Amino acid sequence: MDPEKLMQAEIDGLHKFFKLQATVSTTSMCVFDENVVMRKFEHVEEILKEFYALRLTFYEKRKAYLEGILNAESLKLSNQARFILEKCSGELVIENKKKKVMIEELRKRGYEEDPVRQWKMKQDKEAAL
């Protein structure tokens, strides 16, 4: 935005210039409730009270999802770090080995396949139920 337009916007008011402010009629406040039924509310506070518990349960679900994905990613990174340390120290030798043999050796050492993918598959199964 060039300085002249910015000056004019400040004179007129930034809210008006950028159309950040609008008036909304509160005479007809019809909203879908948690059962997807249209309901009419008289006051905004009624809408907030109605949906408070519903939003709280969805916040809890989202928090549990984020905690789960972060734990799975943490486990994946721990496996990667352990792999690198074992490779650098010489405990784990991967050169001149077939892929199947290498995968079997990693399983014997306690490495998980892909914790993030396993966690997501578990979530998909639970969602299908």
TrEMBL record:
EC number: 5.6.2.2
Catalysed transformations (reactions): ATP-dependent breakage, passage and rejoining of double-stranded DNA
Cofactors required: Mg(2+)
Record keywords: ATP-binding, DNA-binding, Isomerase, Nucleotide-binding, Topoisomerase
Domain Topo IIA-type catalytic: 1-129
Gene3D superfamilies reported in the protein's UniProt record: 3.30.1360.40, Topoisomerase II, domain 5, Topoisomerase, domain 3
Origin superkingdom: Eukaryota
Main EC class the enzyme belongs to: isomerase
SUPFAM superfamilies linked: Type II DNA topoisomerase
Record InterPro entries: DNA_Topoisomerase_II, Topo_IIA-like_dom_sf, Topo_IIA_A/C_ab, Topo_IIA_A_a_sf, Topo_IIA_dom_A
Entry keyword annotation includes Oxidoreductase: no
Protein name as annotated: DNA topoisomerase (ATP-hydrolyzing)
Organism of provenance: Dryococelus australis
